[in-house]
Amino acid sequence: MGLRAALAGLLLALPACSLTEGPADKAVIARYDGAGQALAAFKLDGLTIEAIAADGAGGTVIAGELRTGASDFDNPQRFTYAGVQVTPSGKDVDAFVAKLDANGAVEWLVRGAGDDESHALALAVAPTGEIVIGGSFKHNVTFGGTRLETSANDFVSAIPDAFVAKLGADGTLVWAVPPGMNLGGEIDRVAIDPLGNVAGAGRVFPTGVFVGKLDKDGLPLAAIPVKADLSSINNGVTSLTSDALGNTILAGFDDAGGFLYKYDAQGTLVWQKDPITDQGRADVGSVVALDAQGTLLVAGNADAGSVIAGHAVAAHSLFFAQYDSAGTLGSLQLTGSPAGGAFYELRVTPAGDRFVTGDSLGAWTTGAGQPIVEGRFVAGCDAAGQVQWVKVPVLDDLNDPQDGALRPLALDAQGNLTIAGRYQTQATFDAITLR
Fold this sequence. Notes:
Elements: H1 3-12, E1 26-32, E2 38-45, E3 47-54, E4 60-67, E5 80-81, E6 84-85, E7 93-100, E8 106-112, E9 118-125, E10 131-137, E11 140-143, E12 146-149, E13 161-167, E14 173-177, E15 185-192, E16 198-204, E17 208-214, E18 220-228, E19 236-242, E20 248-254, E21 257-263, E22 269-273, E23 282-289, E24 296-302, E25 307-308, E26 311-312, E27 317-323, E28 329-334, E29 341-348, E30 354-360, E31 364-365, E32 371-372, E33 375-381, E34 387-391, E35 394-395, E36 409-411, E37 417-423, E38 427-429, E39 432-434
Antiparallel strand pairs: 1-2, 1-37, 3-4, 4-7, 5-6, 7-8, 9-10, 10-13, 11-12, 13-14, 15-16, 16-17, 17-18, 19-20, 20-21, 21-22, 23-24, 24-27, 25-26, 27-28, 29-30, 30-33, 31-32, 33-34, 35-38, 36-37, 38-39
């Protein structure tokens, strides 16, 4: 039996699962100013938002899935945005990317239609306004007039394939390609370098992590296997960034904890931190390229007793770590000692102020004296890593009133933040309530 057949048999033997999101779920987008004051909130029915980015012109680009809910597929709800009906075309999930204006109205929406499900998991917007998305699909998916099909002759529906697509600022498809992993996979993060080349990273199912690069026309430049351990399925990608020199920095995790890999513009390994700890465990949520010298800012969480480049962590802490271009740790800033939690997304202003989304598993107080209660949060920090404000929006998610899958984060040129989540009946952001 071949490896693909064995993997297919393993996946098909797993218990069937169904979607937890149904027609009652609503996607929500909220905007905050740099001081943490909620400015506006908008709801979008029938969508799940996986990624979000500012477009440079006052608008917002979102990517994710159009959903009916598996339990209501025979009689799905239908919603229309910018003249596009968003009922999924295949089973119950279609990938999409859309642009919203400053008031939250949908200017355009592009979907990936197919015979089975597709997911848009990653998003990046270039200074030119061009948009890149990445994700996965089963069997086939069509963006614009480009149809992608799975690369394997003996493909089974349990194994998806990855895709990357590029669109103009007006939503016109430029190209869509499959990266071509032999065992299928997904693109979890994308980044665009100064030359317009596209880096993508994700999982090769079921056990690998890869990073690759396409040129501005979608032609392959490099494909690099980062992890390939058949004994472990506990690995993945959490962040990806490109710096001013075209280097690509990948963050992810495996059984040993978080790791960092840096590759030059040609795909050659420059340095790695695998794991990032000398002892104990720490995980990386997000990494941002800060300046033209290649300085990196990393956000993550470390277990008590961990040591990162000689710096001991006394209690479980969220942290910021700064690395120079050679991968040497310049500073490690601990933000507090929660009962448990994580940083998910990180954005940084030109002045060095930091904004994060994260998750706290218990109430705690930061080093700056800011209280954080249990739940998903958005926070603003100064350039020294001290928390200046914290907000915990209340979203009545299906499973947890303070969950709402509140991870995606965008920062615009004016220093305002946009976050995304989901709720069923009520979402509250400061004095703003949506129902």
